[in-house]
Every structure is written in structure tokens, then in C-alpha cells.
What does this fold into?
Amino acid sequence: METHAKSIVEQSAGYGLWFYVNQNGVSIDFRMMLYGVRIIQLGVKSCYMVNDNDKIKLREGLIPRDIDEVFFLVDIYEKKYYMGKDIFKMNRSGYELTKILTEIGEAAVSLVLEKFIDLFENGQNEHEIKDDVFYFLNGLAERGYLFVNGKIRANTLLDNNGQNACIQGRERGGLPKLVETYWSRRRHIYSVGIELTTVCNFKCVHCYNQNEDHSVRLSTQDIINILDQLYENGVLLVYFTGGEILTRPDFLIIYMYAKEKGFIVELLSNGSLISEDIIKVFDKYPPAVISVSLYGSSKESYERVTSDAMWFDKVCYNLSKLKESGLYFEVKFIGLRENNGDFKKAREIAENLGAKFRYGFEIFPALHGDKSNMSHMLSPEEIICYEKQDLEMGHMIHESLKSELLTPEEKGKGVVPLYLCAICKYMVLIDYQGFIQPCTLMRQRQFNILEDDLYDAWEGFAGLQKIMAEKNYKCRSCKNYKICNPCVEKNRLFTGNPTIPSGDHCRLIQYRVEEFSKEKYANT
It folds into this structure.
């Protein structure tokens, strides 16, 4: 390993040996080294210190990860990883030290320190390095990440939010900020969706996968190989989708492999097949989030949407079990003609469970085949009636509409990309056959991860960002673009033409502008 003193000191300068991204997306900087001069940036009142003669061991389930030169210590037992929250983030020095702790097992502090100092070239001040290492080790101990003489003695001053009450002073950060300011600009894939299967125990009337081959194409070993390739490419977040992911008998094997590699794992499910055994595994090795689709608030609605009334009670029971286990989950309501009128009761179900409630009314034509499923979508007029009930969303749109609304053409001063979204910037989808897709709605067979290198595919996709919009592209001159997020692939599915959006979609956006421009949404 070519790690030199200069690079380590530079990494320490301005960043500290480590900092922790808490649940509010706030990084807490504990200690800094600036141009070789040690500065105590923030006072850390410690109730426990690691000493020279102590034997230390990193707690099991902690995985050091290098994500495009951003370093994390992922805890596979952590229940607070939703939206990139509560992830322990380090600089390169902290990363190298945790790697030593991972490889060495239990050892005297002096041996760990010796191995760490060996990474530096001659001429470094060993006393300053030692002092910095002790601050770092003490921080690990306070977080409950370090066995010291066979015991974990976490700092009792850590409050219920996982935040050290003694620390003062914070700076904004977190994964969303890293995506916006770092990974997207460097075109680094930090998030990947894996479509485990198209098999589903529901037969939903609106499903965009309904014309796909309903079979398992990727074997257990295929998915393990895919996860290995994602790990090597520095992917941090993986979400599993389907079909219904829990129809796979090998789901827990796949899930545990992803967790033990140090991925942050999210799950998309209809919630019907969550067994007691699965909950036991989730309780010990929690997913960052379980996103459960809710198709109505009664057996009658479920029968109309999924073709089977029995699933409603089963889904509600499983959601209650998730709540009892303390797992983070969200309820995602899909509004259709078949469950029209269920919105309020569905939201109450989520609120009673203490779950985040998300909803959507726009559905997509089948990926391959006719558009008959679109007959189940509510009209723009019906959708806006429901959206008016969400005062928080109304306020956000209102605030957005108050600022200057520029068309893509005005914003780009005449230069308008065809794709006005985040395509090919930081995420991809691996479909159920292994094909690498730039987004969920785009389905092509150019690259297959079982045969092709992910990096090569990613470089091949870069050309999509360079395609310019034609003069007749309707969205390029629309002032509603800011609250619309036009989608080329959605256009292609709806109208057969990537430059022509659906008329219903444009009407819905215009209704939003007219409704949420009203002053009653200003102070909601």
C-alpha cells in the first residue's frame, strides 16, 4: 500500500481524523490538524479514555468502506441509516486505522499504534500522531465501536438521537450533500438498484412490469457476483426491488451477503410476505428502510387492485410487526381508480404506525406492451384534489414558484440537453436479467453486468448527457420545468416520442402551478 505521510497529513488538515454524520445530516468535527499544528477544534468531555496498555478490538459488524475517496465505517447493526443518516464518516487516516483494527483482531494499543505509524514516512512527529490516534480510538470507544480490555463502555452522554451532548458546533453535510457536491460531479456510482425478480404474488392492475417474463433469471451466485463488482466499484447504497423481492427463497442469503459486504441496504416490497423469521434477521441486521406499497385501506380495495382481498390484513399485520421491532419503514400509497377515496384512511394507517407516509398518483405504461394499464390512473383533476390536502408539499411548491421561473432554454442560454434529469450521474439499475440500465424506465440491452464491466458501461452511458434537445422539444420552452422534472423516458412510454410529454401530465403540472401559487400556502 502506497500511503505516505504527506497524503495522510493533508487528509487530516481541515477535516480531522474523523467525524460523524448524525441523523440531521450534520457532521460533527471532533479534531483537526492544520499544517502540522494540532488544533483542538471542539472540546470533547470524555468519560472514558483508551490507554497505552489496554487491549482493544473493533466491534464485529463494522465495515470500513472507501467510496470514491470518501471513507465510512458502516455498522451492519445500525437502525438509523435512512437517507444516509447516522453514518460514521472518516478521513483516510481514520480509514487506514480502522482497516488495521479489522485485520489485527484484539491487540495492545501499542501494537496498533506501531502499525499505524509504519504507514508514515520518516520525519513525522510520532507524539503528534500518537495523540491524534488516541483521540480517534477514544471516539470509537465512546460510540460503542471498540472493545477495551474485553468490554464495551459507550459514553452515557450520548443522547437518544445518537448525538454526543458534549459536542458543540456543527456543519451541514450528510450523503445528500455529498451526492450533490461531489459524487454527481465526478460521475461516481454510489447507489444501485437490483431488480431481483419480476415474479410477484400480486396481480396489480397498474403494474408496469405486467408484460415482462415472470421468472427468476439471476441465480444466487449471479447476484453475489454482481454485489462483488459493485463493492469493487465503490458503491455504498444498494436497493432491492422486483416484482416482489420476498418471493425469492434465497432472499435472506442475498440480503445478508450485501449487509456483510458493508452496503447500506434499502428494500422495496408489497409487505405481504414478511415472515417472523425475516423480521428476526432484520431486527439484528436492519435495512436502512423498508418501503412498503399500500394499495388501499380495505379488503375491497385490495381485491380491486391486486385481485386478492386476503392480502390487506396480512400487510397490515406485517406493518405492525415492523413497528414492534423498531425497524424504519415507510408506507407508500399508490392512488388509483380502484382505491379512489382511500387516501385519507391510508394516511391514517401510516400515522398510527408512526411511519413516514408517501404517495403517488401517476403510473407508467407497461415497459413492453400496450398502455391498457393506464386506464386505472386518476385524472389530473382528481389528483390535484388529493394533493391540495398535503399542505407541506403545497408550501414547498409555493416557495419554489415564488422564485424566478426560467425555461430550460433560458437557464442554459440556448444550450438544452435532452435529458434534464440526473441520469448517468450517480446511480444505475441492474434489471432482472442483469442488464445495466441508466434509470428504472429506460430498458436497453447494451451492457450486461454478468458479461461486461460496470465501469465500461458507465463510460458508455456518459454520451446520454451530451445529447442536445431538438428545437421542437416542448419542454425546453416551458416555465413550469422547475416543478415538473421532465422525463424523456416517461415521454417515450406515454407518447412513443421522447420529445413529446403526455397531455395529462402537462395538465397536472399546470393545475399545480395555479393551485399552489395561492397565498394560502405561503405560511403552512
